Amino acid sequence: MKDYRTASRLAFDRQAAQYDTAAYGRHARALYPLLLERLAQHSWSRLLDLGCGTGALLSQITARWPQAHYAGLDLSPKMAETARTTLGSRADILLGDAQQLPFDTASFDIVLCNDSFHHYPQPEQVLQEVHRVLKKGGLFLLGDATAPAIIRLPLNLLLPLGQSGDVHLYSAKELKQLLSDVFHAVESRRVSATSLLAWGISA
Hints:
Elements lengths: L3 H12 L10 H14 L6 E5 L5 H9 L4 E6 L2 H11 L4 E4 L12 E7 L8 H11 E12 L3 H10 L13 H9 L3 E9 L2 E7 L2
C-alpha cells in the first residue's frame, strides 16, 4: 500500500520555499478570501489551522482577529519551519499528523483545513480527531480541490501513481456525506470548477 503521508511530507518539504508565490500554491491561495469571508460570520477565542503550510492564511487571520489564540499543524517539517518564521509568537506551530492531533479534547472553537483534506489517506479518522478537539458547537471549515466528474473520476484512478501524496479528490456530495457522519448542519458546495467549501458543527 502506498505511503501517502511520506509522499505528502516530501512533496511539501520540496515546495515550502516557493509555495506562497509558485503555481502549485495558487489553488490554496485562491481559497483564502472565501475562507476569511466565512470566518467573519463566527466568533472564537481558539482556532486551529490543520495543514497550515507556510502559515500564510493563518497570518491573514491573526492580523484580522488578533485577540484570539491560534495553533497550526503540518506534516511537513519545512512547511512548519516556514510557518514559525512567518507567524512568530502569533501562533503555536506544531509538527504532527492530522490522524492523531496533539491537542486536548475540546480545545478549539474552530478547526480550519485548507487544500489539504485530499491528502489524507484515512479521512474518517481525521474527522473524528477534528470532532474530538472541537468544543461543542464548534465549527469545522474546509476548503479543498475538486474537479468536474468527467475529470475527477479518471484522475482519482491515477493519483496513486503520482508523487505528490494526493489521495482523493471529492465531489461536494461526497464531502457532505463524509462530514455528516460526524457533524451536524453540514453544508458543502462547489465555488468554482476546481474548488469547494464545506463546513459542519460539532455536536
